[in-house]
Specification:
Layout: H1 5-15, E1 17-23, E2 30-35, E3 38-43, H2 49-62, E4 67-76, E5 86-94, H3 114-126, E6 131-138, H4 151-155, E7 160-162, H5 165-175, E8 178-188, E9 193-194, H6 197-202, H7 205-212
Parallel strand pairs: 4-8, 5-6, 6-7
Antiparallel strand pairs: 1-2, 2-3, 4-7, 5-8, 8-9
Helix pairs in contact: 2-5
Length: 215
């Protein structure tokens, strides 16, 4: 599940054989095809936890999906992470109130499925990819009126910021299903570096191929 439905289209046309478009509702494109003889679906998730929350919930509960691998972009906040590096989200902090619905009397720690996580780390090593594994932050805000809002998270060792992972991990936990998030660094929030729009939409081949290797 990439965020961008056009990235889902690109993946289907580039990596899958016999791909068929199975969803166009709200232009959230989804395709099912074959990768190395295995049936796989790729679908956009949209932006933010509310959008990811809806689509991943329906896939888990209404369409008998057992595992979802999110592939997305993220903004790095640690100095030793560079553009195009891969981050495997072992856990996901959040400033979202999404977890309120579960009625927990405390803070829930959304984490990846360990089996998928372990396979991803091993596959990345065999591919000699530059990968960091650790905690990310899923924020509800892309633009934030508070200055230096990421500084406390940076001090706590958070690797990068996205907008969807925590919601996906919570839904997976509640459904008793599997989830993993792979992120490509598209910008650095402290070095003021970034990839352009075309690089974000059509690039990220290392991340896509790593995700497909987990099937």
């Amino acid at each position: 599940m990439p965020g961008d439905p056009l990235r889902a289209k690109f993946i289907a046309e580039t990596y899958l054989t016999h791909a068929v478009c199975v969803n166009k509702v709200r232009n959230m494109l989804a395709y099912t095809g074959l990768y190395n003889g295995k049936e796989v679906s790729v679908m956009g998730a949209g932006m933010g936890i509310p959008s990811m929350g809806i689509y991943s919930y329906e896939l888990y509960h209404f369409y008998n999906v057992d595992q979802i691998i999110r592939i997305g972009s993220a903004g790095a906040i640690q100095d030793d992470i560079a553009l195009n590096d891969l981050v495997i989200a072992m856990g996901a902090c959040t400033d979202s109130n999404y977890g309120y619905q579960f009625g927990l009397q405390g803070s829930f720690a959304p984490i990846a499925d360990f089996t998928l996580l372990e396979k991803a780390v091993c596959s990345a090593r065999t591919r000699n990819l530059t990968v960091q594994t650790g905690n990310v932050l899923s924020s509800d805000m892309f633009y934030n009126d508070m200055e230096n809002i990421n500084a406390p998270w940076r001090k706590m060792g958070i690797l990068a910021v996205d907008m969807e992972t925590a919601g996906l991990y919570m839904n997976a936990a509640r459904a008793g299903k599997k989830a993993l998030c792979l992120l490509t660094i598209s910008d650095h929030l402290y070095k003021k570096e970034y990839l352009n729009a075309e690089e974000r939409q059509l690039g990220f081949s290392n991340m896509i191929e790593l995700a497909l290797s987990l099937l």
